[in-house]
Specification:
The chain is of the alpha+beta class and 204 residues long. It has helices spanning 10-21, 42-47, 67-78, 87-115, 124-142, 145-148, 155-170, 176-179, 181-190, 194-198, and strands at 2-5, 29-32, 55-57, 63-65. The radius of gyration is 17 Å and the shape is globular.
């Protein structure tokens, strides 16, 4: 299998963590890809018109899009437990992940607004709104002991690790640790897992 990725992508990191946890990391070839907004990448657009990371290309040549769907595919391959099979735990995990993915999308848009949009054209209120979505999402998880207590490790914990890691990577001065001490304790505990520690993005 091949996975398009960037070491900086929190979405690709999510899949890398899952692949390590599921024992599949050695079965995946990682293919670097660049998807900067406003920059054409015709070759990658042939793989996915959405031009997003990551994409999994299976051994049969099928293209699987979206980090959650890729994790679900890998989880099903080996009968893993990263996504609960049925019942309330499944829907809670999927809902948690939808919130987490929205937080990551908002953080990425804030990053692009500052990095990519030409000077003088930035929309501060729009950026502030998106940052507030991520920040209040952190507040929501600060009060979720069922996610933070460490009794399980599934797509909820993987996604939340990627949110906090991306905050460290791209928004190092945002102060999330001081604002959310329970998230800080959770993150420190998760960093003890090899899959989480190995996948930390390089220094910005």
């Amino acid at each position: 299998m091949k996975l398009t990725f960037s070491p900086a992508s929190p979405f690709a990191r999510k899949v890398r963590i899952a692949a390590i946890e599921l024992g599949l990391i050695d079965k995946i070839e990682f293919v670097p890809a660049a998807v900067t907004p406003g920059t054409a990448n015709e070759d990658y657009s042939k793989i996915t018109p959405l031009k997003k990371l990551p994409v999994l290309i299976t051994n049969d040549g099928d293209v699987i899009l979206d980090s959650y769907v890729i994790v679900e595919y890998l989880n099903e391959m080996v009968g893993g437990s990263l996504i609960p099979d049925y019942g309330p735990r499944r829907w809670k995990a999927k809902t948690n992940h939808s919130l987490i993915n929205g937080m990551l999308d908002s953080m990425l848009l804030c990053r692009y607004e500052k990095l990519v949009r030409p000077q003088g054209l930035q929309w501060q209120a729009w950026s502030d709104d998106h940052w507030n979505r991520a920040w209040t999402g952190m507040a929501r998880f600060e009060n979720r002991p069922d996610v933070l207590d460490g009794s399980s490790f599934d797509i909820s914990q993987i996604g939340l690790v990627c949110v906090l890691g991306y905050a460290d990577f791209r928004f190092a001065d945002c102060g999330w640790r001081k604002a959310y001490p329970k998230l800080d304790a959770f993150h420190q505990k998760m960093m003890e897992r090899p899959s989480v520690k190995i996948s930390v993005p390089p220094a910005a």
